[in-house]
Amino acid sequence: MNLTLASLGEILWVLGIVAWTVIRYPFERRARRVRVVDNRRSPSDMCGLVMAVLGMAVIPFVYLATDWPAAADYPARAWAVGAGALLFFGAVWLFRRTHKELGKNWSISLEIRDKHQLVSGGPYALIRHPMYTSFLLMALGQAFLLSNWIAGLAGLVGFAFLFFLRVDKEERMMMDSFGPTYRDYMDRTKRLIPYLY
């Protein structure tokens, strides 16, 4: 088998998505058993989720399965595949850490669960939304691993929709639930990138 750099990038991307799915699955199962006490799902929230799934999963999978749109391909570079692998590995590691810290508080959408607690340990000690940070790292990794302008960059577009349609609403929900405690937490942390934003 003649493994090209482009093929290696694609394989690494698929392995990252498989790891992401394996990490998330048990938390989705457990979350179904914990009662939701405040549900803030909205059409814009669902739009953000759909756009994220399209950009970070559907479009890349279509590209890998059909090679469409091949006209947007460009030559893979070793440094890009290496950078993409590091970014994706970092994303999966952070994704796992966020799930572990959240435990029963985790939700796929804007929900407060029964006996919900404010999590401020682990990666949450530095940033309020480390799961979004992991998505950003995944999207950047995808851009380097998939040597196609559309499939590669679709993840960043999907991430942008998810982040900008949800993060303000999520923080409002947390303020409503935890009041001054969450305000204090906001004062000592950044949103997405430690020490910067």
TrEMBL record:
Keywords recorded for this protein, A-Z: Membrane, Methyltransferase, Transferase, Transmembrane, Transmembrane helix
GO biological process: methylation
GO CC annotations on file: membrane
Transmembrane segments: 6-25, 46-66, 78-96, 146-165
Primary location class: membrane
Statement: the UniProt record of this protein carries the keyword Transferase: yes
A Pfam family that the UniProt record links to this protein: ICMT
Molecular functions per Gene Ontology: protein C-terminal S-isoprenylcysteine carboxyl O-methyltransferase activity
Source superkingdom: Bacteria
Keyword Transmembrane carried by entry: yes
Membrane topology: Multi-pass membrane protein
Localisation: Membrane
Name used for this protein in its record: Protein-S-isoprenylcysteine O-methyltransferase Ste14
